[in-house]
């Protein structure tokens, strides 16, 4: 299986978008996240904002290969809220994202089928309302060499269109570079074959 070297995500949080069903209100939100620790404060702030809300259900996904995800029904019947929301994250093929749906009960029960439909629709509307961007997955390396090798190394970097993230030019030179994840193995081989230059992968 070919490793992905890009992924789809959102840059900005999406303001709440309202879906109504039988007087129940469902507010769908999308948030960019980079770690699981960000989830709880966001959910808590939504609970504060909607202090009359009966449920704040959500799902999130992080990473590319592999991904981690969670779906939370927040007291709704099992799998009637979190999983339909997560299904939309999969359907839109996005990651590093949290989708939350706030429900204010309108007095009429929707039944499990109705809930699944409502949470799915609110999540879908939040995603449709957000600006999805594609991001590259980068691999990072450090090149170390003596000053006389500088021209040769810089020529290679330019020729291969490699991004320099930092550099230290003294008698002993050190350059940090980033390349697309899919191009990492051949980049590493290329510099390993270069005399008097060492390359090591940064995390």
UniProtKB/TrEMBL annotation:
GO terms for cellular component: cytoplasm. GO terms for biological process: regulation of translational initiation. It holds the Pfam family Impact_N. Residues 22-127 form the Impact N-terminal domain. It comes from the Bacteria. SUPFAM superfamilies: Ribosomal protein S5 domain 2-like (SSF54211). Belongs to the IMPACT family. This is Impact N-terminal domain-containing protein. It comes from Flagellimonas eckloniae.
